[in-house]
Amino acid sequence: DTGVSQDPRHKITKRGQNVTFRCDPISEHNRLYWYRQTLGQGPEFLTYFQNEAQLEKSRLLSDRFSAERPKGSFSTLEIQRTEQGDSAMYLCASSLGGQGMAFFGQGTRLTVV
Amino acid sequence: GESVGLHLPTLSVQEGDNSIINCAYSNSASDYFIWYKQESGKGPQFIIDIRSNMDKRQGQRVTVLLNKTVKHLSLQIAATQPGDSAVYFCAESYSGGYQKVTFGIGTKLQVIP
């Protein structure tokens, strides 16, 4: 499968715990994006990387959230001290430059209990 | 599994009929627009895009129309099939490419066999 891969697909965690998600983009894509989607809503932009550089962060990305793309390939999104309001689908997408459409992964469904 | 289409506007069409899904966008500076299809439990899937220097673009069974005067997009699906049942999102971006993309409110398309 050469699409965008996200791991895990589902995560249930207790409030206050830290969680980390991984995204493997399409191999030649230099741009990588993280979105969050809650039930009944469209995806909301969180942040994006061009290669290893994080170029934009949404105000939605509180200081409990951190994203990295250390070698310009895979990316991780960490949420510290999770809250129930963090429960959502976290989507990763990648694209080649800024001119093409982005391809989305299947998402990681986070449930904070 | 969970439905991404809860509480969304719903369009019901008979199989074989044409579907028209409408979207109003908010940013007059947006110059790139994309339609995505999202099936339950999956990430959004690119359908078709259009740049602001065009008012119509056709794909396979799909046509996107752009009216910049009233900031309106529509997606037309010809000969709608059961596999077209999903939630459809329009998305807008500025800067001429795919950078931060803002998704609109989705529309759930139900195809009646």
Describe the structure.
The complex is a heterodimer of chains A (113) and B (113). Chain A is an all-beta fold and 113 residues long. Chain A has strands at 5-7, 10-13, 19-24, 31-37, 44-50, 53-57, 65-68, 75-79, 88-95, 103-104, 108-112. In chain A, a hairpin with a 6-residue loop joins strand 7 and strand 8. Chain A starts with a strand and ends with a strand. With 113 residues, chain B is mainly β. Helix content of chain B is 0%, strand content 50%. Chain B has no helices and ten strands. Chain B has strands at 10-14, 19-24, 32-38, 45-51, 56-58, 62-67, 72-77, 86-93, 102-103, 107-112. In chain B, the strands form two sheets. In chain B, strands 1, 3, 4, 8, 9 and 10 form a six-stranded mixed beta sheet that branches. In chain B, strands 2-7-6-5 form a four-stranded antiparallel beta sheet, with no helix packed on it. In chain B, 34% of the residues are buried. Chain A binds chain B through residues 4, 31, 33, 37, 39-45, 48, 56, 58, 91, 93, 95, 97-107, 109, and chain B through 2-8, 34, 36, 41-46, 49, 89, 91, 95-106.
Biggest beta sheet summary of chain B:
6 strands, mixed
Q: How does the overall form of chain B come out from the CA principal axes?
A: globular
What is the terminal-to-terminal distance of chain B? 22 Å
Chain pair with largest interface: A-B, 29 and 30 residues
* Residue fraction in strands of chain B: over 45%
How many beta-strand elements of chain A?
11
List keywords for this structure.
heterodimer, A: 113 residues, mainly beta, seven-stranded mixed beta sheet, four-stranded antiparallel beta sheet, 50% strand, B: 113 residues, disordered N terminus
